[in-house]
Design brief:
Layout lengths: L1 H33 L5 H12 E3 L7 E3 L4 E4 L2 E4 L18 E8 L1 H4 L9 H11 L4 E8 L5 H15 L3 E6 L15 H5 L1 H17 L5 H7 L7 H19 L2 E6 L12 H13 L4 E3 L13 E3 L2 E4 L1 H17 L15
Parallel strand pairs: 5-6, 5-7, 7-8, 8-9
Antiparallel strand pairs: 1-2, 3-4, 10-11
Helix pairs in contact: 4-11, 5-9
């Protein structure tokens, strides 16, 4: 009997050692050969692990770690002492500067592009090139934010930022519900293999099994009783009221989904945004015309990652700056609305 028990324990130990060895070998392989600094799932995981922390405010969810830095998707990313991407912010704001705060998610943050190629930096350059005034565009984008989180995050920093103008850059997934932010497990926070397996599982499930593809997923965010669009609408109204009280110009901008551009599959969502802006007497600019005639893949960071690359941000910033100058968007009367073409 004792011999049988001993044999069982020996066999179990052999199995455990074998599994540990295989997992260790797989982890080594992922770190050494798979991680080339451009793998979307791994880089997003590094972003969350190295540059983000859980916020004390559940409405914000997560936020950047002040003064943190990392190399992500081949570019250096520096977070300033206020928890935003970009140079340090002067507070109080100089009187001779027209300060624009650009609110958004990873599209505004500039995922996969150098700081100089972000939408905020290019917009600042374009506006300043043809104006006597001094413009400063602050990048308040944070990856994985929705509109509700963006507004809550801005309001927590409003006294320091002191904007003259706010541009709310809306992307189609900004109608997602705010997720619960729990502490990440030790395995997921340290294992490349776990991240890659989770990403592969999600890809296979969306392509072959029960999970919705990207177009169905986005359309469903705007169906009745989903809650996310309603929360986004309430937050935009809240931001509009705040801006009215503080005499701040608020402008709504739609950033298009770059996987299909002509015909664009989400024109109804753009109309929802335009109608909301009109109901609040806010200027609205749709950036789809800036890129509609370009091959979509030429605008992506990488083929599996359709975030705007440097070229896309150049087109988007030039169109946005031109629209603001042409329609006096920055100093417009509240009634001006730029509808999508």
């Amino acid at each position: 009997m004792r011999r049988c028990i001993r044999q069982v324990l020996v066999n179990a130990a052999i199995v455990m050692v074998s599994i540990t060895f295989m997992l260790g070998t797989a982890e080594f392989f992922c770190r050494t050969f798979v991680d080339d600094g451009m793998h979307y799932h791994l880089e997003m995981w590094k972003y969350a692990a190295r540059l983000k922390r859980i916020s004390h405010d559940p409405a914000i969810g997560h936020e950047h770690v002040p003064s943190a830095r990392a190399k992500l998707m081949g570019v250096d990313v520096q977070i300033n002492d206020h928890g935003l991407r970009g140079p340090s912010i002067t507070s109080p704001k100089p009187d001779d500067v027209h300060r624009i705060v650009l609110l958004g998610d990873s599209m505004v943050f500039g995922w996969g592009v150098a700081l100089s190629d972000t939408l905020s930096e290019r917009l600042q350059k374009n506006l300043s090139a043809e104006a006597d005034d001094t413009y400063e565009v602050i990048n308040a984008g944070v990856g994985n934010y929705n509109t509700t989180m963006e507004v809550a995050h801005f309001l927590s920093k409003a006294a320091m930022l002191q904007p003259d103008t706010i541009i709310l850059a809306y992307f189609i997934n900004d109608a997602e519900l705010t997720p619960n932010h729990d502490a990440v497990s030790r395995i997921k926070s340290s294992s490349y293999l776990a991240v890659l397996l989770e990403g592969a599982f999600d890809t296979i499930a969306r392509r072959f099994f029960w999970r919705k593809d990207w177009k169905d997923y986005y359309h469903d965010l705007y169906r009745k009783n989903t809650g996310g669009w309603s929360s986004a609408t309430d937050s935009i109204r809240k931001l509009s009221e705040y801006c009215h009280e503080e005499n701040i110009q608020l402008i709504m901008v739609n950033i298009p989904e770059l996987r299909e551009l002509d015909p664009y599959p989400f024109s109804k969502v753009t109309s929802l945004l335009a109608n909301l802006a009109e109901s609040l007497s806010l200027p609205f600019i749709d950036l789809l015309p800036a890129v509609r005639d370009i091959n979509p893949q030429d605008l992506w960071v990488t083929v599996p990652d359709p975030h705007p690359n440097a070229h896309a941000n150049r087109f988007l910033a030039e169109y946005l700056a031109s629209s603001l100058r042409r329609n006096d968007g920055i100093i417009s009367t509240p009634a001006s609305v730029i509808t999508p073409k």
